Amino acid sequence: MSGPVLPGVPGVAGIPEATGPDVPRLAEWFRGATHGALNAIYILEPLRAEDGAVGDFRFLFANPLGAELLRLGGYDLAGLTLRQAVPPSRVEIVLQQCRDVMASGKPLVEEFEVAEYPPAMRWLRHQVVPIHEGVVITSENISPRKQAEQELGQREEWFRAAAEGNLNALFINEAVFDAAGDVVDFVFAHVNEQGGRLVGMDPADMIGRSICDLFPVNRTHGYFEHYRQLFLDKRTVVDEFPIQSPTLKAKWLRQLAVPWSRGVALSAEDITEEIARKHALESRQRMLSAFLEQIPGPAWIADDQGVARLYNRRYVALGGDRVAADGEPVSLDALFGALQGSVYRLHNAELIATGQATRSFETGPLAEGGTALYDVYRFPIDADHERLAGGFALDITDRRRAEERAEYLISHDAATGLLNREGFIRRLAERLGVPGARPLVARISLREAETLREVLGSRFVDRLVQAYAGRMADALARHGAEVGRDGPDQMLLMLDQAEVAGPSLLAAWPALSREIALDDQRYSLNPRLGYVPADPSGATASAEDLLHACDLAHGQAVSRQTTAAIAYAPEMADRLQRRVEIQRELGNAIARDELTLVLQPVFADQSEGGVAGVEALVRWQSPRLGAVSPGEFIPIAEESSAIVALGDWVLEHTCRELRRLDAAGDGPRLYAAVNVAEAQLARSDFAASIAGLLQRHGLAPDRLELEITERTLMADTQVHQANLQALRALGVRLSVDDFGTGYSSLSYLLRFAVDKIKIDRSFVAGLGQHGSHDALVQAVVALADSLRLHCVAEGVETEDQLARLRALGCGQFQGYLLARPMAPAALRDWLAERQATVR
User: Fold this and answer.
1) Residue 336's CB: how many other CB atoms inside 10 A?
2) Please, what sign has the CA dihedral across residues 59, 63, 66, 72?
3) Which of 76, 373, 404, 458 has the highest CB neighbour number within 10 Å of its CB?
4) What sign results for the dihedral spanned by CA atoms 702, 707, 711, 712?
5) pLDDT tens-digit map of 102-144
């Protein structure tokens, strides 16, 4: 089919010229119409193959807007083909449209998107009209309209998302006017799902219906009049009010009323439970006040502005009853005077700022006059929108006296007043803790004391021991002599600076071995002496080690039946020698690359593949000492600075191997548990170093679990607590290792939000053999469950133990029954085999 024939227009590219009197004017009209047109105009003729098929179209004419719309502005399109000018994503479509229009003789209109064009020109609308041997295409840029439509649709979508995603009920009410223009009602224009749920109706059934007809309570209780006045006054109001309506489940509502141009929008929230909680809170506050009154000392909760919010009568009495406080908030200045009030205010402000609980012993006034020693607990309280400072103080004057007496009795021999073994060890440990200290320790036994006791009685021998101790202390006073008693006839001696004190002791020993006078009588005690100086190389040994060496030397003196002083020799104690050698070698083990890391899987019933994580363990193969057991070298490392370097090595290698595990397969991401010593947590930069370690290896914080002992958890130092809190804030897991074998404390588990507790292998080993072990494991599992902690059983070695643990509720396990510790490469292969089996 063919369309209309266009007349020839002279001077228009691609259109044959014609003649006649109207042709110039027609050409002028054509140019004006096409060049001034708001649409793009193209005239095209078909290009046919030899078989007559149309393979392309050639531009005969295009106005300037047409060239611009094809992003060829400034070019004359005449002579170009569609394939040359039209974007690739559209050329085949336009060609086919032109063919179809020429064949059918019917115009075609289409709106379409051109992917290659910028957003401002992306959407076009064109009309293809057939003409004689060709087509005319007119195109317009409809991108602004499309963008406006999209924005309008997006805004409608936003509104619906906001309305339906709102947790509150939303009612858009439109005003109804009478003939005089007065508001006589409101109808529901929009109700979200929460609104329908609040009133118990389908929102669709409410649209267009009167709020007063559907809910007469609106008119009978004045709600309509309230909304009407808000609409007229253009006021926004938030109200909380009780509501009584047979159609509403809510008993209390909080409502935001916002006027709009044609009505009032209401956002309503059922606060029935909130009001109930408020009343319950008031009730709890009354109970708290009653509880505070039962505390046997001053108790308070105050803010950082110097106002006591809650307090008991003892707190008021502490200030001398300056005000008749009745439980309402009162300033600290009014309670205690400006000076003392400012001191307490500073305490509270510092506590609130740091968030760190404190405990101190302070001297303060008594209500009845005089002073007392108080055990003062201060702690932050995080309220809904503020932090407060709470605290209480207990008069411990009498208790402290009793404790001091008890402490004295614990560390001293009651009969002689000398240090007992525990007190002596404590004092020796203190001296060993002084840098550069090298004490000498001796044990003296009074061989005749037992015979004298049988004849003259214990009290007499106690006096002899006192007299002998005094003689020794006087003779060696310039060496800081400290004398203790360890048993009826055993004495301990400690001297400063062994290199000087040793010769003095040997010089004084003959005189100290002679008879001693008491009650005008002389008595031979036949003493034996063994002594040990601290290691001159500077290697540290514990107090127990020195006493053990001293005991070995004393044993030699006794066995030789000699009163000569016997010094400790290395061959007396292979164990002590090995301990010192381990300590020396351990310092170089890392530098010499003698340590290896092994990883033991931790199994969890709920984990994919059964494996939840691994525990990092260290092995040491020393060229000098051979294979050294962790149970042997780790306690030694913990007594020296070596544990810090050792711990850093394990952490670094564990994170490195964890990344290699991630790269080796597509199995679940395992966590790695690493033991952390108390000395590591004592470093102020420990938490920061962990953060840097995780960042350096690209690991999420929860991939690392730090295992600490109960003793470490309870270390009451600011650095320990700051590190633990920082690690929790970072997201690192914390677990308590060997739980139940140390200083168990629920308060510390809660304070630091521990993730896991590990049941010690000694309890697991006794399952099924000792009823107490079953009961203890069950209690630990129940405790972990109640605190929402994970619980891992260590040392699972038999099927019976595993079955019993599962029966007791434990869901995570570790032990040789399930998997032994293995090298990282072996672990990767082992995990790959398990993953393949699961698949």
Assistant:
1) 23
2) positive
3) 373
4) negative
5) 999 999 999 998 888 888 888 999 999 999 889 999 999 988 8
